[in-house]
C-alpha cells in the first residue's frame, strides 16, 4: 500500500514515469502498471493528494497483483543458475563486455533481456566500469540534503553508569553545506526519524530530496538501480513530502558532501570533549552546528554556510509538517480466538479472516489491519496487555458470552418467553452476575431440548413458588410436572392434619394433672385455679 501510494503521489506531482519510479524505488514498468490501474479506477492528475484513499489504493493493488515480490522475474533465476560462468567471462584479464556475454547466453539457449543481464552482472558478479571522477553541480538551493551515520565515541549513560557507543546522524545541505548533527545510541528507524524531525526544526524547513546511505532502517534491498525502501521510511516520506535518492553500496562519491563532513564532526566537535550525558552532548552539538560549523569559511564555496543557507536556501525549503507519529509495521496472523496480536495487545478481526496473515500498521492512535491492500479492520491503539474487541467480529452465539453482555443474554431468554426472561434475570441477580451466566446458558439449553412452551410453564411455576434454581426446572421438565402445582404442607392446627388432636383433650389432660398434684399433697394457688 505504501509503495503504490508513493508512486501515485509522485505521479500527481506532474513528473514523468522515470522520476516516479526512481522516487518510489520501483521499476518503471511497475510504476506504469500502478498508474494505469489508478486511472482505470478514476484517478486523474488534476486530483489532489486527498484522492489517494485507502479504498483507491486497495483497488489498484487488487488490479495489479504484482507477481514478482522479490523484484526479479524468471530471467533472473536463469542467470543465477549460470552465475559462475558469467563471472568467469567478466573476471578474466581480457574480460568480455556485457553485450558479448548477452550474446553467448542467447546462443546457449538462455534468452534474457540485455538490461537484465547488465543488472545481474552489476549486482551478482561485481561488474563495474572504471570511470574518472568528475565534480557534480550542487543543484538548486533547498533541493538536496545528504545524510549519513558515523560512529563518534563513548558517552557515559547515567541510567546504567556504563559508557555506550554514540553515533552521529549528520545532515548536510547540498547547496550551502550547512549541517546538523543528531546524536543517538542506536541506528533504528525510530532514531533516524527522530533525527530528521530535529533537523527540520533546526533548518526550519524540509529539503525536497534526501540522499541517505544504505541504512538498514531505510533501505531493505540495496540495489544499485532499483533499491527497495522500507515501508516505515516511505510512510514517513509521504508524511513529510520529500523524495528519497539512496546512494549505492560502497559508493561514497554518491554523497561526497556529507562524507567529508564526517571527519570534520568527529575531529572538531567530538574529539577531546567530555559530556555529562547524551542530552548534554546533543545540546552542545546543536550550538556547534549553528556557530562553529555554520560560521566557518567553507573550503569549496568560500562562504559561510549559515549565511548562504539563510539567503538562498531557506526560502526554498518545504514547510515543516506536524510532528510525525512513528508507526510500527508488522505481519500478524489471525488466531482461532478471532484476534491478532500487535505490540502485545489484542485486536479482533471478522471470522472470514481466521488463519490468514494480515499487514498491521500501528501508531499511537490507531491500528489498521489490511490484506493485500484491502483495509480489513481499524481499532483504537491499546496499551500492552490491552484488548479491543468489536462484538460484530465474533459469532453471534458467542459474542454475548465473550463480552459478558448480560443485557443481551436476558433479551435472548426473553425471546423464548416472558417468564423465561424473568427467570434469567432472577438468576443473574447477584453481586457477581457473570458468575451465574452458565446457569442462564443451561436454561437456554433446556429450551432447545424441551421447547419454549414447557420451559415457560416450568419457569412460571417456579416463580410462583419463589424457587430460583435451574436444577429444579430441569427436574420438572424431566418428570413432565411443569404444569402441576405441587402439594404444600398443611398449616398447624388444621382439622385435616394427620396428627391433629381435639382441643378438649388438652382440657381433660389439665384436670388430670391437677388431680395428681392434689393427691400428692400439693395444692394449686388461686391464680392457677383461676387459669384452670
From TrEMBL:
Residues 137-313 form the Integrase catalytic domain. One of its GO terms (biological process) is DNA integration. InterPro entries: Integrase_cat-core, IstA-like_C, RNaseH-like_sf, RNaseH_sf. Gene3D superfamilies: Ribonuclease H-like superfamily/Ribonuclease H. One of its GO terms (molecular function) is nucleic acid binding. Belongs to the transposase IS21/IS408/IS1162 family. This is IS21 family transposase.
Amino acid at each position: 500500500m505504501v509503495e503504490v501510494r508513493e508512486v501515485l503521489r509522485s505521479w500527481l506531482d506532474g513528473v514523468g514515469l522515470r522520476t516516479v519510479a526512481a522516487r518510489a524505488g520501483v521499476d518503471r514498468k511497475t510504476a506504469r502498471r500502478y498508474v494505469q490501474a489508478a486511472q482505470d479506477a478514476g484517478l486523474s492528475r488534476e486530483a489532489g493528494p486527498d484522492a489517494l484513499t485507502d479504498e483507491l489504493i486497495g483497488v489498484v493493488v487488487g488490479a495489479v497483483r504484482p507477481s514478482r515480490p522479490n523484484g526479479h522475474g524468471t530471467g533472473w533465476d536463469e542467470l543465477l543458475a549460470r552465475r559462475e560462468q558469467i563471472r568467469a567471462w567478466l573476471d578474466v584479464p581480457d574480460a568480455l563486455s556485457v553485450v558479448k556475454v548477452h550474446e553467448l547466453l542467447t546462443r546457449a539457449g538462455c534468452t534474457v533481456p540485455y538490461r537484465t543481464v547488465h543488472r545481474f552482472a552489476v549486482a551478482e558478479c561485481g561488474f563495474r566500469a572504471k570511470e574518472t571522477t568528475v565534480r557534480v553541480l550542487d543543484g538548486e538551493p533547498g533541493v538536496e540534503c545528504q545524510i549519513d551515520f558515523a560512529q563518534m565515541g563513548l558517552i557515559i549513560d547515567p541510567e546504567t553508569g556504563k559508557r555506550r557507543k554514540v553515533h552521529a546522524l549528520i545532515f548536510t545541505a547540498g547547496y550551502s553545506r550547512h549541517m546538523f548533527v543528531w546524536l543517538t545510541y542506536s541506528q533504528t528507524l525510530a532514531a533516524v526519524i527522530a533525527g530528521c524531525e530535529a533537523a527540520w526544526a533546526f533548518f526550519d524547513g524540509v529539503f525536497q530530496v534526501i540522499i541517505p546511505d544504505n541504512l538498514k532502517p531505510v533501505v531493505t534491498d540495496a540495489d544499485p538501480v532499483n533499491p527497495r525502501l522500507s515501508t516505515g521510511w516511505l510512510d514517513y516520506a509521504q508524511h513529510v513530502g520529500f523524495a528519497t535518492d539512496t546512494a549505492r553500496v560502497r559508493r561514497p562519491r554518491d554523497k561526497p558532501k556529507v562524507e567529508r563532513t564526517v571527519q570534520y564532526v568527529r575531529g572538531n566537535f567530538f574529539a577531546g570533549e567530555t559530556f555529562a550525558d547524551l542530552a548534554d552532548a546533543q545540546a552542545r552539538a546543536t550550538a556547534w552546528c549553528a556557530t562553529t560549523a555554520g560560521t566557518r569559511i567553507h573550503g569549496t564555496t568560500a562562504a559561510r554556510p549559515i549565511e548562504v543557507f539563510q539567503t538562498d536556501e531557506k526560502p526554498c525549503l518545504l514547510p515543516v509538517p506536524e510532528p510525525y507519529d512513528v508507526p510500527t509495521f508488522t505481519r500478524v496472523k489471525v488466531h482461532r480466538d478471532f484476534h491478532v496480536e500487535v505490540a502485545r495487545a489484542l485486536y479482533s478481526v471478522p471470522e472470514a479472516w481466521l488463519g490468514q496473515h494480515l499487514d498491521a500498521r500501528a501508531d499511537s492512535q490507531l491500528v489498521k489491519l489490511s490484506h493485500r491492500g484491502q483495509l480489513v479492520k481499524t481499532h483504537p491503539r491499546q496499551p500492552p496487555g490491552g484488548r479491543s474487541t468489536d462484538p460484530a467480529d465474533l459469532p453471534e452465539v458467542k459474542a454475548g458470552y465473550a463480552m459478558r453482555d448480560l443485557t443481551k443474554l436476558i433479551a435472548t431468554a426473553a425471546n423464548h418467553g416472558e417468564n423465561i426472561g424473568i427467570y434469567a434475570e432472577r438468576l443473574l441477580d447477584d453481586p457477581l452476575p457473570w458468575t451465574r451466566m452458565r446457569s442462564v446458558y443451561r436454561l437456554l439449553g433446556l429450551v432447545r431440548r424441551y421447547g419454549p412452551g414447557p420451559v415457560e410453564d416450568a419457569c412460571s411455576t417456579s416463580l410462583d413458588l419463589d424457587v430460583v434454581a435451574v436444577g429444579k426446572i430441569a427436574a420438572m421438565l424431566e418428570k413432565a410436572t411443569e404444569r402441576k402445582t405441587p402439594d404444600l404442607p398443611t398449616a398447624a392446627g388444621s382439622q385435616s392434619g394427620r396428627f391433629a388432636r381435639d382441643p378438649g383433650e388438652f382440657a381433660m389432660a389439665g384436670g388430670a394433672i391437677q388431680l395428681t398434684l392434689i393427691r400428692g399433697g400439693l395444692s394449686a394457688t388461686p391464680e392457677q385455679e383461676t387459669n384452670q
